[in-house]
Amino acid sequence: MTDPPDNRTIRILDPMTVNKIAAGEVVERPASVVKELVENAIDAGARTIRVEVSSSGGRITAIGATDNGIGMTADDAILAFAPHATSKISSIADLDSLMTLGFRGEALASIAAISKVTLCTKPRGGRADEGTRVVIEGGTIMEHSETGTPEGTYILVTDLFFNTPARKKFQKSLAAEIAHITGIIEGLALAHPEISVHLIHNAKELVMTEQSPRLLDTIARLFGNQVSADLIPVDRTMLYVSVSGYISRPSLFRKNQRRMFISINSRYVSSAPITSAIIEGYGTLLSKERFPVVFLSLTINPTLIDVNVHPAKKLVKLSHEREICTAVWEAVKNALLITDLIPAGTVKGSKISTGRSPGAPSSTTYGHAPIQSSVVSEPTHAGIITTDRQLRQTELPTGIQPDTSVVPEMEVIGQVGGIYILATTDSGDLILVDQHAVHERIMYELVSRKSDSADQSQELIVPVILHRSAGDAALIRELLPVLEEEGFVIEDFGKNSFLVRAVPVVLGKLEQTDLVDEILADLTREEPERFVSSRERLARIIACRSAIKAGTVCTHEQSKRLLQQLRNVKNPFSCPHGRPTMVRFSRDQMDGMFRRT
Ligand code: ADP
Ligand code: MG
User: Fold this and answer.
1) Whose CA is nearest to atom 13 of ligand 1?
2) Ligand 2 centre from 40 Cα, in Å?
3) How many angstroms is it from 73 CA to the middle of ligand 1?
4) pLDDT value at residue 358
5) What is the rounded average pLDDT for all residues in the chain?
């Protein structure tokens, strides 16, 4: 046996090594440097911030940030790089009323420990000889001198990770890093519309915002008028939180959550619970795998927030998280409820130009709903009498006054292809209505309205016997409580058979008991989605199966009744799967198509 090696002895690490280790938490990647520098500039009261990133050979080689904030004195310019040096708090109690983005006093020390930094700074209102230049390499001060420099601060970071080879090796591709940096800059710019922010990569301008008191201007600058024109304002103050900003109409969506920008007290953050609350606020307005475009800023009493849970301050911890999330969910839901959400008609997948939206950048990654929706499989034709019966079932009072409806009053012109109802509004807009989707929505709201009346079920004249495979039977057995709650009376008949005695009253008097068979078949066939409860799934299936089908010829009277009923529902603009119920061709758009403008 050999003696344990020398390096088993415990020793206190030298400050340089401590800094390098600590730096790993704050500076995970080049984008972290950008975030810290811009946050410092914002805290310094800058009105314009310019970030320049250089790259060569697929790597980021330099990051420079210029601001016109308060600047630093010669002494502070050195102190700023000391670990745990900050001008923003003096005790832990200050965190309860924190108004700045920084407070840990770690960023500059961390960055300087693992790169080469040049700082030029001059305090606001300082004389010409009050400018300072500091050069630091791997935490060692190489230069501290007087220099001529404009008011504010310029920091240049080069050779990032030069002395931490392991970290250097794990860098993402240049494209990924630039995308990440762009996202951070966008988030910071959106949290601060009052600041003009520029991002330049190898002389190419990637982001440019102007100072504006209006968030909508910043959004339009960043993502184009096509996006800003498709947004709905949100503005609500509740007990623990005020929510303001903009959310997209359901017709504008993304395949991921990257355009969901949330700030809390002007701090751009990522928060999974708040993101989920927003998505849930859309409910059935968005189909799965579609995400809204969101720019929301939350104002919360600082004592309810802990920003000190993550070294890079990306995450925040909220007390009363449940109440805050519920409030956000409500704010989103209500904003959508009071808005006319009929999407504009599109041709060949692109919106018809109304002459109002000049060239918008990078809108290609957005979806516009009506055209490329998923294929719908629907059963076929049923007959006018059945249609009448189906429509009458839905004539129950829904408690919403038609004259307060967000759906415009429409006059039926006719029906196209046995699928679409053609209608017009007072203002001369043409509305195309998907009759199945509309009826499905009406049925869905009827089914999901929790009714406590005892007569939810309707007995079948002749009970139906259904035979199933062993697997399906097991599934049905599992779902029996949900089916019962919805109004089905089903008995397990043994040997994988079931006896259906009664059905929900919304299905009406059933001439065709096939419907019961179809509903149960759907229930066992479809893979359940995450986040969708069995009850919700059943409600959607009942709605879909009991709604009039595409291919059903509707009389003028029937179409009229359908549109009248639609004015009574809460969420008239999409079917329960998130497809639109109608599409609008405005008078303006039509004039544009015929070049009448
Ligand atoms: P923190 O932001 O947590 O205070 P930093 O390490 O990021 O810690 O910065 C240390 C200090 O340096 C800040 O508290 C601030 O006083 C000063 N500072 C950093 N960047 C700037 C800047 N761009 N303009 C003015 N002062 C700055
Ligand atoms: Mg900072």
Assistant:
1) 86
2) 5
3) 12
4) 38
5) 85
